[in-house]
Amino acid sequence: LDLDRIVPPELRSELRPRSYEPGDYLIRSGAPVRELLVLVEGRVQVTFDAENGKRLLFCFYEPPRLLGDIE
Fold first, then answer.
1. Where are the extended beta strands (E) located within 3-69?
2. Cis peptide before 64, with omega less than 30 degrees from 0?
3. I need a labelling partner for 14 at 20 to 30 A (CA). Which of 28, 54, 66, 70 fits?
């Protein structure tokens, strides 16, 4: 994976590898985002809970991808 495309060199020393299991939540809508995630392997499913209680598939993200709010 070419991190040069998505993470500036001066920030790479701050990266900490993490692994998640299928079904784990990485970020919940409306929750404060305290970190920026870099997807380097696997696939992330983005879903939305509708008012009728159904979970709707919004999209999939694949590497390389930044996840989280950037202000």
1. 37-39, 44-49, 55-61, 65-67
2. yes
3. 28
Task: Name residue 49's beta-bridge partners.
Answer: 55
pLDDT score of 34 more than 80? yes
**Phi, psi of 9, rounded to the nearest 5 degrees:** -55, -35
> 40: which residues sit within 8 A by CB, 6+ positions away?
1, 3, 63, 64
59 backbone dihedrals φ, ψ, rounded to 5°: -170, 175
Is residue 38 within 8 Å of 66, Cβ to Cβ? yes
Give the global pTM.
0.75
> Residue 17 is which amino acid?
P
What are the tokens at 58? 């919004």
Q: Please state whether beta strands 55-61 and 44-49 pair in parallel, antiparallel, or not at all (unpaired).
A: antiparallel
